[in-house]
Each structure stands twice: as structure tokens, then as C-alpha cells.
Amino acid sequence: MNDSASRTELAALHQVLVESALVAWTAGNVSARVGDDRFLIKPSGVPYERLTPESMVLCDLDGHPVAAGLKPSSDVFAHAYVYRHRADVGGVVHTHSTYATAWAARDEAIPCVLTAMADEFGGEIPVGPFALIGGEDIGRAIVQTLEGHRSPAVLLRNHGVFTIGGSAREAVKAAVMCEDVARTVHLSRQLGEPLAIPQPDVDSLYDRYQNVYGQ
Amino acid sequence: MNDSASRTELAALHQVLVESALVAWTAGNVSARVGDDRFLIKPSGVPYERLTPESMVLCDLDGHPVAAGLKPSSDVFAHAYVYRHRADVGGVVHTHSTYATAWAARDEAIPCVLTAMADEFGGEIPVGPFALIGGEDIGRAIVQTLEGHRSPAVLLRNHGVFTIGGSAREAVKAAVMCEDVARTVHLSRQLGEPLAIPQPDVDSLYDRYQNVYGQ
Amino acid sequence: MNDSASRTELAALHQVLVESALVAWTAGNVSARVGDDRFLIKPSGVPYERLTPESMVLCDLDGHPVAAGLKPSSDVFAHAYVYRHRADVGGVVHTHSTYATAWAARDEAIPCVLTAMADEFGGEIPVGPFALIGGEDIGRAIVQTLEGHRSPAVLLRNHGVFTIGGSAREAVKAAVMCEDVARTVHLSRQLGEPLAIPQPDVDSLYDRYQNVYGQ
Amino acid sequence: MNDSASRTELAALHQVLVESALVAWTAGNVSARVGDDRFLIKPSGVPYERLTPESMVLCDLDGHPVAAGLKPSSDVFAHAYVYRHRADVGGVVHTHSTYATAWAARDEAIPCVLTAMADEFGGEIPVGPFALIGGEDIGRAIVQTLEGHRSPAVLLRNHGVFTIGGSAREAVKAAVMCEDVARTVHLSRQLGEPLAIPQPDVDSLYDRYQNVYGQ
């Protein structure tokens, strides 16, 4: 995809966050890798309804804008860290979506009790440590926590959710599904204990969904 | 209804799932029997906003497409099983709607504590066993669990909801009402124990709703 | 208001129920008194998106249509009973709105712990007995339960909500506010016990809202 | 901003309350300071869909309209009190938003357990005393409770939320974010105890968000 198409798609994906009710006011952001050593990301503090393809900020893999213009999201260094350390990642999403963040505030992973979780996340959605914004701490927390998990989503304690994907659209899908299952499992646990899915069944569901589902 | 009208209605019914907030991303599907030995169903993994009448996949009652084109939903064999074993069924819906699935994750039936449940479901909404996707297990779980219940909706453990109806529209109605009562009973139980409706009153309400309600 | 204006307003008020998420599928209904001895009401089982001013059914105060055409709501006899016994009532609304019905399923009144409740309801929202649809039982339960309460809303056990007003629009307002406070008080009680408002303050708030608020 | 631009923006900000689902029926209001000794505020009891720039009521700092016309919101004296005692305030918002009001009904402050709370509120969202509408009591409760807190939002017991800002838009942002964090912390506490963020980290997050975030 060329730079212009990426900008258009990235602006559109930000609207998916709004339509899916994953973000409030200016919180949250999506980024998309462009070529090997650049990525586009939401500008800092700009309302979603004013985002345009042109307002997306092109950055290098250290998180610095490659041209003068709008400042990138203050989460830019977390995104940059992920792109530097995960060559397979083409898109990153960050939200404070309600139910997922409610789990994160208790420092709890979301257990795999739904076939939809086995399909998309291949097991639990893990939770990583508290980390302050602005440096490499959040990026490192994302990458280290996702090691050893199939999940493209990670909760960060007291903070929110980061998701990754082969493309920005896949990362947005993971953010949507993360909130969906976070909500369902939350509700289920309010009235008792949801039942775990045996690991061989989780494996079977994950394998099928990743390799057979879709066109 | 001819094939073209069925396709148009089936595409429209998928939008009802979206508008009723019963589905996330590409999850969920509706099918409609066409004649005695065919049914139309959603294609696998296609976003709801791109569904068209033409994209609906015509299958035989073994769940195989009758023409080259898009792959059917990966739930196609469950739908096919239902059509083969229930000649009265003209439509099937599958969702992971939030509150119903929260009950399913605990392997709990939804008790009949609302007149709206007595009207539409004639008693509890039962829960069936865990079953893996791809073969006949889910279809069999649906058909066997619904035996001996008036309910057109069944929860499947750790999974979600299937509903049936004389038409696809009736099955969609059952899916909408299932989530509605699942939510209300869930909330009611959060703060105490909802009161059961005596069986004779359930019978009376069900009889009236099925035979007197509507035009 | 003449008959034609009443029909137009009544159709529009049904859309307010939809927009306020108080109703699912064809459940719920609004009626409006026309003159002294007639009222208009929703037809039975017609989807909200197909309601037109012409489809509203004109009935006498025994609940019988005054002309051939669509059947009235199956709640028509409850509405009729209210109009016969409460000359001050110009509109009636019935819903199964989620949070209010969750209270009703436990047979619990909603305690007055919000200034917004004191304003609109002047105290608790009471709960009446279980009653079967189709005769005078529901109407009697509404009228008897509202005696001795300022509230224009009443919960019926295992069923839902009825609201009354000087006009259909006022009854719709009461239905919207009933669900709003039912939800807030429900949520508040999930994490502890909301504090009661002393009766003199309830009285003061109710008096001011009924007599000073608005233009 | 001249009077005409203020009216247009204030009418638009009321629609943000509706779109953000912070208000039901005619409840809630926004005001905006105009010059040093005037402010514009919502008229009393007018439905949100009928609000126009012209319908906003210009008042002096005692809360009295400066011209004949619509009556101001019955919360006008609370807004006036805030403008008289806080020269830094350019906008005030009042809502009964659901989750925040659920905390207020229990007389509980919302603890700072989310980075988004540290960013916007700099600590807990405090709760002030019960106060009757119509005089100076509510205004005094707002101003006194906010002393010694960084939070631009305050809960009032049994009532709802007031937020302040350098502009009306900033106060609306605080109202949106207040409900967002009230909901997330509420949900988190339903299933356990959310973890506090250490005060030095709260301070660091607040400082950064107030001084670095945005363009």
C-alpha cells in the first residue's frame, strides 16, 4: 500500500474505534507500518471527528516525525518500540476500552472461557505491568508480555489495552474482539464462575480459526 | 419466496443483527431455507457492511455449496444438521450475543421469570453441551437440547446462541428476544433472586402469545 | 388536539421508545386519550419501523376498536381500565425496559435515592402484583398500586413498567426517566447501599420540579 | 469569542452531552462565561432537540437573565456561584450521568486507579454534600469540594456531577471523561479491588498530560 492509501485507511480505522465505542474524547490511537522503517500514527489530542488522512503523522522507528507538522500521539514511543522489536507487526492499536480496562485495573488476565476467545486469542488475554508513558517502558511491557502468548492483545495494569496485527485492520479487529470478550467474561463472572475450555479444544479452535475461517 | 427475494431478505436480516448489537466484527450468521432441500447462509468471514444479496451462499442440506463462489460460514454444518432434522425450521440464527453468552459460559439455563420469556420461549432457555465446530456435533447439540422445550433459542456451553424459526425473520426475532431477556434476568439476579412464574401462568401466557398476539 | 394530530404525535412517540432503547422488537406501546371517551393505541405485533399515524387503532373506553381495521395492542384492556378510572390521565405507556423490569422480576420497588427521582416521581417507584394479560387484572393492578403514590410509573411483578401522564408525551417522559433512575439506582446498589433522601427534602424537590421547572 | 459565536458553540456542546449519552430527556445543562460578568446557559426544561443558539439564556453573575425571554436552567444559581468564586472558570457542566451518579448516591469518591484518571483528574474525583437546588447551597458545595483537588469534576451526594473548565468545551470534556472513568472503575470493583496508582506516578502522569499532551 502506498503512503496515501495507508493514510486513508488509517483515518477510516480510527472511525471504527469510535463506532465500536472503544474510545472516549481524544483517547486511543491506531498506527500502521509503512514500508520497513516508517509508520503512520494519530496526531496527539486531535478529536476523532477532525482526523483526516493528511493529519496522520509519519514517524521513523524511533518515534520521531519525519517531517514538520502535527505532533504524534504521546503513545508514539510505545508503538515505535513494538515495530522495532516485532518485524511481523504491521499495525498497533491502543484503547482504554471499558471492560478490558476494568480487568487491567485489577491486574487480572482474562481467562479463556469462550470459543470466540480461543478462535481469536488462542488462550487468555494476558496482563502486563504498570508502566509510565513517554519512554520505552510501555513498549517493552507490550512485547515482553506477548512473548509466549498467542494473543494479539495485552492489557497493561491500571491503563488499558494494546493490540497488534499483521495489518492495522487486524489490530483493530483484535481491539474490537478484546473488548467484546472482556465484557462477556466479566458479565459471566458476576453471577458465578465461567467454565474453562480444555486446552486441546482451545488449540483445535485456534488452529481452525487461523487457518480455515474466512475466504 | 423465490431465491432472489430470499437473498435480499437474508442480507437485510444480517443488518438487524448489527443494529441490535448482537454481533461483533464478522461473528454470527443467519440462514434461510429455500425450497425443501437448499438453504442460503452468510459467507465466511465477510464484514457485515459488505454483505450483499448476491454474496449469500446457497448450500444443500449437507452444508455444501451448490455452485462455485464464496465459502459459506464455518457454522454451515450446524445449520445443515438443523434443517435435515427439523422439517418445521425455515431459518436459523447464530450469535455470540453478550448476555446470553455470559449464561452459556457458566453452563446455565436462563430461568423463566419474565412474562416476555413466557410469551416467546414458553419456559426456560436451555443450555446444551460444549461442542467443537466443523462437524455434526453442534447441530446435534442444538436439536437434542431443543427437544422437550418450547424455546426457539438454545445456549451452547462456552460458545453462544442458536435460534430457530419457521422463517429466518422469526429466528432473528428469537435471537433479539433471547438477548433481551438474558440481559434483564442477568441484571435482576445481580441484586437478589428473581421470582419464578408459576407453570400454569407460563402456559397461559405462551398459549395466548402464540395464538392471539399480532394481526 | 384533533384525531389526525393525535395520530401523528402518537406514532412519533413510539419512535421515542425505540430511540431511548426502551423496547425490543414489537414489545411496548403508547396510547393517547382522544376526547373524553376514546383513545388511540399501537396495533398488535406491528414492527416499530412500520408504524404510521394511520395504523394507530382508535378504541372506546372498554378497549374495543371503534372501526374495522388493525387489531389493537393486546395490552389494550389495561390501557382502557386506566382511562376509565383515572379521568386525569391523557396518556399511558407500557414497556419491558431492561433495568426497571429487573427490579420488577424481584418484586422490588425502586427506592428514592436520587434528586431526579424526587423531582419526577416524588418518592419510590412502587411495584404491583403479578397479573395476567387480557382482562382487567393488569389495569386494576396499575390503578390500585399508584393510589397513594406520587409516581406516574409502576412496576408490575415479573412483567415490566406502566406509566401515566396528563398527555401521552408526559407518560413517555415518565417511561424514559423511570428506566434512567432504575439503571442508576441498580448500579449504585451493586457496590453498596445508596443513601436515602430525607422525606422533607423529597417533598421540597418534588414541589419545586412540578411547579417551578420549565418554561 | 463574541456573544453569537458563544451561543452557537454552547448549543453544539449540548448535543455532545446527548451524543455521549450523559443526559436523559431535559436533564443536564452547560454554561459558558461571556466576558467577565455574564454567562450563557441552557433554558429550563427545553428538549435538547429544540435547543438553538438563540434559546441560550444570557445571565448576570447573580444568575438573573439580563433580558426578557426564556427562563434559565433551574441550576442557574449554582453556575453563577461558581463563576463568581472561580475567576479561572469559563464553563460549567451539570449532568446526572449514570455511573458517576451511582457513586454519588452512595456518597463515595471515585478512587484514582486508571492512568486516564491521573491524566485528566490528577487524583480521585471527590464527592460533596447533599444540597437543595434553588439557592447558593449547590454552588458552595461545588466550590468548597473542589478546593484542594485537581479534579475538574465533583460528584454531589444523591444528585449527579458538576464539571468546570477554562472553557465550556473543557468542562464538557471533563463530564465525558468523568462518566467514562466512573464506569470503568465501577466495573472493575464489581469483581475485586482495583489497584491504586502510587501518588508519584499520579503526579507524573498529571503533569505530562496537562503540559505535553495535544498540539
From TrEMBL, chains A, B, C, D:
<dbReference type="InterPro" id="IPR050197">
    <property type="entry name" value="Aldolase_class_II_sugar_metab"/>
</dbReference>
<dbReference type="GO" id="GO:0005829">
    <property type="term" value="C:cytosol"/>
</dbReference>
<dbReference type="Pfam" id="PF00596">
    <property type="entry name" value="Aldolase_II"/>
</dbReference>
<dbReference type="GO" id="GO:0016832">
    <property type="term" value="F:aldehyde-lyase activity"/>
</dbReference>
<comment type="similarity">
    <text>Belongs to the aldolase class II family. AraD/FucA subfamily.</text>
</comment>
<protein>
    <recommendedName>
        <fullName>L-ribulose-5-phosphate 4-epimerase</fullName>
        <ecNumber>5.1.3.4</ecNumber>
    </recommendedName>
</protein>
<dbReference type="GO" id="GO:0008742">
    <property type="term" value="F:L-ribulose-phosphate 4-epimerase activity"/>
</dbReference>
<dbReference type="InterPro" id="IPR001303">
    <property type="entry name" value="Aldolase_II/adducin_N"/>
</dbReference>
<dbReference type="GO" id="GO:0046872">
    <property type="term" value="F:metal ion binding"/>
</dbReference>
<dbReference type="InterPro" id="IPR036409">
    <property type="entry name" value="Aldolase_II/adducin_N_sf"/>
</dbReference>
<dbReference type="GO" id="GO:0019323">
    <property type="term" value="P:pentose catabolic process"/>
</dbReference>
<keyword id="KW-0862">Zinc</keyword>
<feature type="domain" description="Class II aldolase/adducin N-terminal">
    <location>
        <begin position="8"/>
        <end position="186"/>
    </location>
</feature>
<keyword id="KW-0479">Metal-binding</keyword>
